[in-house]
Every structure is written in C-alpha cells, then in structure tokens.
C-alpha cells in the first residue's frame, strides 16, 4: 500500500508555509496513477498558494515495483541500517535495490528497470556516448545539457544526448548490449553493485570507476 502524510512546505520564493502531501512509500503495482505522477515529476511539483510560483520539492521516498522486482530509495543521502534491514529480504529474493540522488535520476531509473534493462550497462552506455559525442562532434562535455536512456531496441541500448541549443533535436546512439557486457568483463574495476546496500548506480558512480586516482577521466 502506498502511504502519504501532510507536512508543512516552505515556499523558496516568499517563505510562505503551507500544507503539502508527501509520499513515504509508493507501490507501483497497486497505484499505477502514482507511478505515472513519478514519471511526469508531478508528484514533486508544488505551487505556492500565496505567491503562485511553482517549484520542485524533493523528499525521501521508497518506491516498490513487484512486477519488475525493484525498489528505489529517492534520497540524497545513504540509507541507514534500519532501511537495509527492512529491504534485505527483497535483495535476497533477487530484487534490484537502488538509491537515486535526484528526481531526474529516479524517473530515469524507473524507465530503465521497467524495460528490464541492466542499469550498469545503461550507465556505461551513457558514459561511452559522452566520449563519442565529444570525440566525433568536436564538442565540449560542458555543452551537454542531458544524457538520457531512451529504450532498448534490437539488442541495443539507445542513449540520447541533448545540448539545449536552439533547434537541437538530440543525438541518439545505439550501443549493442553484447559489446557493453564485454566491456564490463574486460574491466578490472567494474564490480557488480551490492544490492543490499542500496547502491547509487548513476553518473557519479561510473565516473568514479573510470577516473584514475589522480582524478583524471
Ligand atoms: Zn510563495
């Protein structure tokens, strides 16, 4: 069962405090409408009743999808031991457990895991896509505004890169899953994330793996 409660939210623009509904737990199987509101970001949007400005409001949340066997923990900090104790039985059952630091990461992770994609390979594909984009298009990494998983297609993972330039329609690249798996096997640095500890498998994670101790990618 999904569970929510009402808290006092503070408007970052005018400081007005108002009642706001936050969700502690979402069970996607019983509440598909809440799942949709996660994907759209609507669940984290707020409108100040005083100054009418809109803003995003991120709060800790546990998201459970039994059909696709994954649990997400939306939080910018590491889970405490209590949470790990609660979710260990799920990890033992083969569930994928992940921490997501931002709402953007969270919505992408839902899409990736619902597709049955291996998120380690998705992060690797995103990393490779940035390198290809910079090398082949002679662009700078800081010009990139977003790197996103799009879908799985004919044994490939499709990644889309946007620059936010006017008229930019994105640049898509297909990465064969077999090739990515080989890349993981050949790397002596990539280890299977430890599910039970709610690892964050995201951009920071993949960059930390491929950066040398001197801090150069
Ligand atoms: Zn306000």
Distinctive features:
2 domains; binds zinc ion; 217 residues; five-stranded mixed β-sheet
Structure description:
- The chain is of the alpha+beta class and 217 residues long.
- The protein folds into two domains: 3-114, no CATH class; 119-186.
- It has six helices and ten strands; from the N terminus they run ββαββββαβααβββαα.
- The strands form three sheets. The chain has a five-stranded mixed sheet with strand order 1-2-5-6-7. Strands 8-9-10 form a three-stranded antiparallel sheet.
- A hairpin with a 4-residue loop joins β5 and β6 (70-74).
- The radius of gyration is 19 Å and the shape is globular.
- The mean pLDDT is 90.
- Zinc ion binds at residues 11, 13-14, 16, 48, 50-51, 53.
- Residues 11, 13-14, 16, 48, 50-51, 53 line the site of zinc ion (ZN).
